[in-house]
Write the structure tokens for this entry.
Amino acid sequence: MEFFALSMLNGLSYGLLLFMLSSGLTLIFSMMGVLNFAHASFYMIGAYAAYSVSTKIGFWPALVIAPLVCFVIGALVERVLLRRVHQYGHVSELLLTFGLSYLIVEFIRLIYGRLPVEYKVPAELDGPLFQVFSSTFPIYRGFMALVAVLMLVSIYLVLTRTRIGLVIQAALTHPHTVEALGHNVPRVFMLVFGGGTALAGLAGVIGGNAFITDPSMADSIGPIVFVIAVVGGMGSLAGAFIASLLIGLIQTFAVGIDASLMGLLNRLGAGITPDTFFYSVWSLKVSQIAPVLPFVIMVLMLIFRPKGLMGTREG
């Protein structure tokens, strides 16, 4: 029971962090049709910017400054680079953002080196929040979940209750009409792209000290973000939320399970031994295959429901 309760809480907090990161990618794709391959790199920029700011003036200013840094960089990328290649189609945009992700990683290595940096959880958030049987649930995990929920509510209110949100939604489907009404549509798209990268930066601020901040962090979490986008449905914010929680829970539970298919089959009388065909596969523990489970879910989703959980298009 303790394992279930603790894994459920950790899975939800991890899933909410994944949503914080994937929401920016989903927002950019739904508004602009751009699949930003460099999105996880902005997660890394947010973590390193927060590390640099927190060592000088503390964590709380970094929580504001780092996303703003990502917003400015993202807006400049859209204005100077993406806008120039947009006329050449999605392949050019993919190649641009793919190359940009490599440049960002090399820049981070050049400035900070290849080893992890000491980006620590702030002292006021370092400790137990409450007791779960004989274990404790950290304050910082609860803080991560709180920030993610506040971010979700903020996105919803901005898109549905503000003038800029209505302009953004209108520009998505009727850009020429919006432009005829006097709104600068290219500027709207620049703000959307910058906002999406700022959300990735916010996830970096929160996740960088909870896990690890090093130049490989974008490569490790980036594929998961695209899995979430596919499973949830391309461009669906609600789908990204559900998929993030689903994958966060599945991975968290899987990491703590040492059972294997061999053990289950042997209990059923199969009698699997080292001489059995595919023994190495049967003996794999669930914890060993936890990293590939999101990709298995994605493949199954593409086979049985290509448009994703909440998507509206099949391709």
User: Anything to note?
Assistant: The first helix runs from residue 2 to 32. Residues 2-221 form one domain.
